[in-house]
Amino acid sequence: MQKPPFIEALEKGAPELIPEATRNVEFLNADTALPAKVKLLMAAMVDAIKNHPDGVKALVGMARQKGASEEEIKDTLRVVMAMDGMPGFVTATAAFQ
């Protein structure tokens, strides 16, 4: 797995926060009660709603690696539209960039 950019930033500025950030990334990437691909798509929805297209792109890419289908990704975008309207939906289209 490629190191997320925020981990690289923490290495330079706040290395003491790396263990907690790493635990969060590991949790998202692990199958637990929810499959990893579902958690990653949920996280992508949050990033879309919070207007973070780079996060959407990265998280959806990770979900694809965990087996998320294009139909599951499209459904995720539909949930964003239903819950946040056009602003989040437009951000969520970063999933296809």
Name the descriptors.
97 residues; globular
Main β sheet profile:
none
Determine the strand fraction and express it as a percent band.
Answer: under 5%
User: What overall form do the CA principal axes indicate?
Assistant: globular
Number of helices: 6
Secondary-structure-based class equals: mainly alpha
N-end to C-end Cα span = 20 Å
- Whole-number radius of gyration? 14 Å
Q: Residue ranges: pLDDT <50 for 5 or more in a row?
A: none
What is the strand tally?
Answer: 0
Helical proportion, percent range: over 70%
Order of SSEs, N→C?
A: HHHHHH
Could you report the average pLDDT, rounded to the nearest whole number? 93
Query: How would you classify the quaternary structure?
Result: single chain
Task: Note down, in words, how this protein is organized.
There is one protein chain. It contains six helices and no strands. It has helices at residues 5-13, 18-28, 36-49, 53-65, 70-84, 86-92. The radius of gyration is 14 Å and the shape is globular. The two termini are 20 Å apart. The mean pLDDT is 93.
Précis, in short:
The chain is mostly helical and about 100 residues long.
Topology, please?
Blueprint: H1 5-13, H2 18-28, H3 36-49, H4 53-65, H5 70-84, H6 86-92
